[in-house]
Amino acid sequence: MQGSLDARASGWQPGRQWLLAIPFLAPALIFYTLFLIVPLLGTVVLSFTDWTGFNFADIRFAGLRNYREMGRDPIFWQSLGHNLIFLAGAVMLFQGNKLRIGSARRLTNADTRASFDAAEGVLKKALDEGDPVLFKDIGYDPELGRVVGLRNCASGYCFPLRSGFNVYGVLLFAHPDPDYFTRERRDLLDIIGRQAVIAIQNARLYQDLVEEKERMMEIHEEARKKLARDLHDGPTQSVAAMAMRLNIVRRLITKDAKSAAEEIAKLEDLAHRTTKEIRHMLFTLRPLILESQGLGAALQSMADKMLETYNQKVTVELDDRVINQLEMGKQGVIFYIIEEAVNNARKHAGAPLIAVSLKMTEPGIALLQVADNGAGFDVKAVTESYDKRSS
Predict the structure, then answer these.
(1) Domain range holding 107?
(2) Closest Cα partner for 171 from 151, 195, 148, 147?
(3) Is residue 148 part of a domain?
(4) For the chain, how many structural domains are there in total?
(5) Keyword Phosphoprotein on this protein (predicted)?
(6) Quick one: 107 and 203 in the same domain?
(7) N or C, fewer C-beta in 10 Å, the chain?
(8) How far apart are CA 236 and CA 240, in angstroms?
(9) Position 140 in a domain
(10) Per-residue pLDDT for the chain (391 aa), expressed as one digit of tens each?
(11) Which residues, in sequence order, are CB contacts of 197 under 8 Å at separation 6+?
């Protein structure tokens, strides 16, 4: 019996562990409850009061760098925090000719899938005038009235996301309080809207740079492929022919010196022609005369080199009015188009004459023609088998 009493005295009695833990758990539970309830109560109270923490017109909040500093200001976040429960909003961006919701708060899933023509009502007014629009009676708006998430809102504020002639969309805010959007709150939303425009511009610029980089990589890849094709069709074949002729000369030099001398003369002529082909290729890769003297001189130089290198006659007829109105970059594009067309005609048409003309047909419009009098081809047969060709 004594042993049993000792064991019961030294052990845990039923429920005793919870009584001992209460002094330690109670403060934690109290603080946790306060942590959950106090911010919520503060949010509700602030929702029905006007906040005047700082003057939004202060020059300290004008620039992008200061705007980021303002974003780290607790007062700034307090001003947004009291909107947490009741403020609805959406970012609407153009996709094609329609506004679509890219991000939203307090809107239904069906609302976020809707599209807007911005052809009437608040959306049209904000986009046409380029200024923020403060409005009430959202339910009567011809386009926003069908947004379910806005039906309990009595006032709204629409900020157009545009810069110059570039229109990206709108920022839309709405609240059940008809007098919610005070001057201070509108100033704050204007700051957010302007920074949103800057963010969209930066994103568009980055996307343009990525696309330009990819386009330049494609152009360089195509230039490398063209160079490989030209080397294979021209100098590579000529060098192979020279190697064969050298082998013939080596065999004839001890048996028939006269024939060997004739082969050496032919080999020398082939070497000269190969040199001219390589120089012509280098000229077409980067015609320095195009940069220094313009498109007219570059095309005439190309025609002279065609005659000298391939015995191909090319005539060039240009309208000076067109040349004078073309930027140097556009002149370069036109030169490479003409060079490719002339080279294709030389290789495949067997034409005695290739004619190049660039004329102005009417103000602002010019016509480029590259014509030859050689053999033609079946356009349908070529296009049907085009996907099987390597060039």
Answers:
(1) 59-208
(2) 195
(3) yes
(4) 2
(5) no
(6) yes
(7) N
(8) 6
(9) yes
(10) 444 434 444 444 544 544 554 555 555 455 445 444 444 444 444 444 443 343 433 333 334 334 344 444 455 445 544 444 578 889 999 998 999 998 888 899 999 999 999 999 999 999 999 999 999 989 899 999 999 999 889 999 999 999 888 899 999 999 999 999 999 989 989 988 898 888 888 888 888 899 888 988 887 788 788 778 877 877 888 888 888 888 888 888 888 888 888 888 888 888 888 888 888 777 777 788 888 888 999 999 999 988 988 889 999 999 988 888 888 888 888 998 998 899 888 888 888 999 999 999 888 889 999 999 887 766 676 666 655 554 4
(11) 161, 162, 163, 168
Final residue of a structural domain among 208, 225, 253:
208
Residue 114 located in a structural domain: yes
CB distance 118 to 99 below 8 Å: yes
Do 316 and 199 have their domain in common?
A: no
- Domain membership flag for residue 49: no
Residues 165, 301: one domain? no
d(CA 136, CA 122): 10
User: Do 201 and 77 have their domain in common?
Assistant: yes
d(CA 385, CA 304): 34
Q: Backbone phi, then psi, for 159, in 5-degree steps? A: -110, 120
Which of 140, 174, 208 represents a domain boundary (last residue)?
208
The answer to pTM > 0.85 is: no
Report CA torsion sign: 16, 22, 25, 30.
Answer: positive
